Amino acid sequence: MVETVLDPRELKRLVSARLLNLPGVTAVGVAGGTLTVYLSNSSSLVRNQVIDIVNSVAPDAPVSFQSTDPMRPIASHLPGRARRRA
Hints:
alpha+beta
């Protein structure tokens, strides 16, 4: 049996909705020809859930993870706004 390798963009299309429903997954992309999942919560539980979802569509497909910083409100960066002091 010959395995066909799924194009990373097609893999993204197939799994993005499910991945984005996981707590801590902030984005899904393709970087360097690999499915890349951006996480605000990089716990092993979230990573394992991502891998399980990807493997259900394309077993052994490479997945990379990137950590994202928590987002800050845009208003705090507008000119003329004073920044809060700690």
